[in-house]
Design a protein that fits this description.
Elements (H helix, E strand, L loop, with lengths): L1 H14 L4 H15 L9 H7 L8 H14 L2 H13 L6 H13 L5 H6 L1 H11 L4 H12 L9 H10 L3 H7 L1 H22 L9 H27 L4 H19 L8 H31 L2 H12 L3 H16 L4 H18 L4 H15 L7 H10 L3 H24 L2 H11 L2
Helix pairs in contact: 1-2, 2-15, 3-15, 4-14, 4-15, 5-6, 5-13, 6-8, 6-9, 6-12, 8-9, 9-20, 9-21, 10-18, 10-19, 11-22, 12-21, 13-14, 15-18, 16-18, 17-18, 17-19, 18-19, 19-21
Length: about 425
């Protein structure tokens, strides 16, 4: 009964329009008061502070900063031109370019909304200028931006690693193949939608054009190699890698391309600060909310309830995925992770499901949440740029949602998709 009341109160506040972080904090506070445990509230500040002081979490603001520097420094435009030379001639043309460019940018930012709001502006304007329907351009931009948190680096995987004490390096490697599969699934969907609607496509770029655009983009393309290579070689931790990514992006913008000026930095830093504060405040209140769940043994009750339904790991995984997708309709992706990881992690350990594999499953499920109303953050980011309604975007989104969902199911039930690369490079 306690479990039902807690989650009913939380979902009720969110449906009333209360911000997720405030809703979690209020739910925990009211629950403690109703249960006669007001003295525990003296620990609120300490619990919230303790939830945000991990060295691992320091990676979050630096990866956000790296993405902002690349968006401001003209790096995204170079990536777009290179992607267009590679795949602009395939059915779907700039729709295919949109997906490839997002896959490349994924290795630099780790944030879906940064992709949608930064690279997305360039992609959608180019598609509009070349005769593509605005709704198609907006939908594929929102969908392709969700590749960002799956291909490393990834802010959700940093948070998952922090909460479960799983190696962030292994999680980063585990996201590579699923992220590529996401891109391929979206490209297939773009191909069939575009061929049916007879959208335009570019001429096949000559080899010289591909080489020239590749040369212009080669320095930004080194960013993923620097990040992953440094982690695998032991030169730096994932957190230190985020700082290296920032320094490298700033070097490219200020020194190499000279597309960022010192007067631009305050605005870049302020945007990074506001995004970081938003995420860290959710993490802080989730720490307090998670403490409530642990004190009242909610994870144990949920595990008992789920295992009473079935002891079949396949069926339990399907149930967990459905719960994650349902939560994703109402909660922002990071909030879903913070609320559910303390519960579901214990279940998957009990059934001997690899926590690295499950981290990718949770991240993919939360990415679908970014594309589903009423709280799809990528939908809102693209809607604000295009002026299209959420309803229009949602109707256009179904082929891409289906592609990502099929990848999610494959990763959930074929462990090798996510585990092959980390096992190969880091051992079991």
């Amino acid at each position: 009964m306690t479990t039902l009341l807690i989650f009913s109160g939380l979902i009720g506040l969110i449906l009333l329009g209360v911000p997720v972080a405030v809703a979690m904090g209020l739910t925990a506070t009211v629950t403690f008061l109703l249960m006669g445990q007001a003295d525990i509230l003296t620990m609120v500040a300490q619990r919230m502070y303790a939830s945000t002081t991990s060295f691992t979490l320091l990676a979050i603001p630096f990866f956000i900063l790296a993405g902002n520097l690349m968006n401001t420094g003209g790096i995204t435009e170079r990536i777009f031109r290179f992607a267009r030379a590679l795949v602009g001639h395939i059915w779907g043309g700039l729709g295919q370019v949109n997906v490839i460019a997002s896959m490349i940018f994924s290795g630099m930012s780790g944030a879906a909304v940064a992709d949608a709001a930064g690279l997305g502006k360039i992609e959608m304007q180019a598609m509009k200028d070349n005769g593509y329907e605005w709704r198609f351009s907006a939908a594929i931009t929102a969908a392709s931006s969700t590749i960002g948190p799956v291909i490393p680096p990834s802010i959700p995987l940093v948070i998952y690693g922090y909460l479960t004490e799983v190696s962030v390096g292994r999680l980063f490697l585990a996201g590579v193949i699923p992220g590529v599969l996401m891109g391929l699934a979206l490209m297939v969907a773009v191909y069939f939608v575009s061929k049916h609607r007879r959208y335009p496509r570019d001429r096949r770029a000559p080899l010289k054009e591909i080489l020239l655009s590749g040369k212009a983009a080669v320095l930004p393309l080194l960013t993923p190699a620097i990040i992953i290579g440094g982690i695998l070689s032991g030169q730096f931790t994932p957190t230190e890698a985020s700082v290296v990514a920032c320094v490298y992006a700033m070097f490219l913008g200020l020194v190499v391309y000279r597309s960022i000026h010192l007067r631009d930095l305050p605005a870049i830093f302020w945007d990074t600060l506001t995004h970081t504060v938003r995420i860290m405040f959710i993490i802080a209140t989730a720490g307090f909310f998670g403490w409530l769940l642990i004190l009242h043994r909610i994870p144990v009750q949920v595990i008992t309830g789920l295992t009473s339904l079935s002891t079949n790991p396949v069926l339990l995984m399907l149930i967990i995925i459905m719960v994650l997708l349902l939560f994703g309709c109402f909660l922002e992706g990071i909030a879903v992770l913070l609320i559910t990881i303390p519960i579901f992690h214990k279940i998957i350990v009990h059934f001997s499901i690899d926590p690295v594999q499950f981290g990718i499953v949770m991240t993919l499920a939360s990415m679908i949440g970014l594309l589903t109303p009423p709280v799809g953050m990528c939908l809102y980011a693209v809607s604000s740029i295009t002026g299209l309604s959420i309803g229009e975007l949602t109707r256009e989104m179904w082929p891409y949602l289906l592609g990502i969902f099929l990848v999610l199911i494959a990763v959930a039930f074929i462990p090798g998709i996510s585990l092959w690369l980390p096992n190969l490079l880091m051992g079991r």
